């Protein structure tokens, strides 16, 4: 009986590194994200400051990994630390919980294994992070129209898995 509102601030084609660097206005190369405008983080920050700070927030659900295969494991972890810290600073919420999805396109290739390893490290190296939805088995055309982005059935299944990943205790133990 806890009301839940979900704000989507995801931006396709972005990596953990671009989120981390843009959080602090640091340069990076990308065909359509302007680091000088602090994109993609700026759009998320705008929502945090203008909307979420007024209604409150229980936690952040993180889905990253599909576009991180070309990054090093350390870059994924350190970049995630950056945008998590910036979020907590913006909201003056040092204990804010981040739920980290098992999120990648599936398989056992080196890039995918690197993402999986980084996601496990995030859970041990960044305080107040918890295991989120297991989305890594939602693969193939049945769930992803292009092998990366979820189709309608994929979105439905992802929502179910997020629901299953957040036990009742999550709502009483997170602040």
Helix-strand blueprint:
Elements: H1 16-23, H2 41-55, E1 59-62, H3 73-91, E2 97-102, H4 110-125, E3 129-134, H5 152-165, H6 168-173
Parallel strand pairs: 1-2, 2-3
Helix pairs in contact: 1-3, 2-3, 3-4
Describe this structure in words.
This protein has 175 residues and is mainly alpha-helical. Helix content is 45%, strand content 9%. The chain contains 6 helices and 3 strands. A 3-stranded parallel beta sheet has the order 1-2-3. Helix 3 links the parallel strand 1 and strand 2. Helix 2 packs parallel to helix 3 and helix 3 packs parallel to helix 4. The model has no long low-confidence stretch (mean pLDDT 91).
Report Rg.
16 Å
- End-to-end distance: 17 Å
- Percent of residues in helical segments? 40-55%
Question: Using DSSP, what is the number of strands?
Answer: 3
Number of helices: 6
**Order of helices and strands, N to C?**
HHEHEHEHH
Q: Catalogue the unreliable spans.
A: none
Structural class, from secondary structure content? mainly alpha
Largest sheet: 3 strands, parallel
Strands across the major sheet, in which order?
1-2-3
Mean pLDDT: 91
Shape: globular
